[in-house]
Amino acid sequence: MRKTRDTMLVMLLRHTPLMLFITVFLLFGWLSPRFLSYQSFENVVKQASYIGIVGVGMTFVLLTAGIDLSVGSNMYLSAVVAGLLIRHHGLPAPAALVVCLAVGLLFGVVNALVVTRLRIVPFVATLGTLWIGRGLGLWLTESIPVEFPETVTRIGAQRSLGVPLPVMIFALVVLCASVLLRSTALGRQIYAVGNDIEAAAKAGINTVRVQGTAFVICGLLAALGGFISVAQLGIVNAGFGKDREFDAIAAAVLGGTSLFGGIGSVFPGTVLGAVLIQMVSIGLVSAQVDLYLQPLVAAGIIFVAVLLDSLRTRQLAKLSRRHIRVEELASPRHFVENRAIDVGGR
To answer: Which domains does the chain have, with CATH numbers?
Structure first.
């Protein structure tokens, strides 16, 4: 009976992010019935697509027990370089996207080298590259906004099979990331490094390569997220991408990814987290909450979500330990060992 109860509790705890998502969705639907419409939900997912892409990259880093505070600056610098090349050299949109991704990839490589070769703590290392990236972008633009042509903004408005293209790109990124994490050796190594880096090294895993790869993937997806955001906004100003690292971290954590590494998933985890953040933002507007109270309400919802996730993680660990102890006590090996002790004691 107790085992059945524990099993049900574990299932409920594992699906806490999904239940929170449904609760918030129904709450805003109750406050504003139009929020429940398909058009409204499509708008939420479309606007969440770019932060979801960045959040997927952040998930890779968090799974290795690292963190990347520079993704917002990466988004800004990558978009700025692509925008300036379009403006001054007439670069076509596909080539601009390639350049944008190349800058993001380089940004990720720099983070990887600083963390793995110079052995600087990820928090400090990426805090430094955050300021460097933002400074380079401001120097290149002299704080003047960079406008993008219609060839780029058309990407943000385009549809494929009736679905907005940004959502399709987001779905493709999620699919590739999920397959990588669940079905490849690299994915298993990322989880192993996050769980226990020393044990992973003893098992023959190249922990430096795994950590570096996570930062490179994060840098690449940050640039892609920045380009998708630009395709919807059409302009890059001095504040573009600012503080988006916190949205990306929140999206991953709200989806169940642990800040201590080794626990988390891209789908449904980070996807739910990214959509939840955007849903709260749009839901507060739909519910006509006071403009000045919206940040406080949004922060409160996110705080409660993170608190629930923390409690969930501790409870799951406690249930896991209890389950292991029960299995050990019931095992024949445990009985034989105890019997030998009893005989020896006599």
So the answer is: 2-345 (1.10.3470)
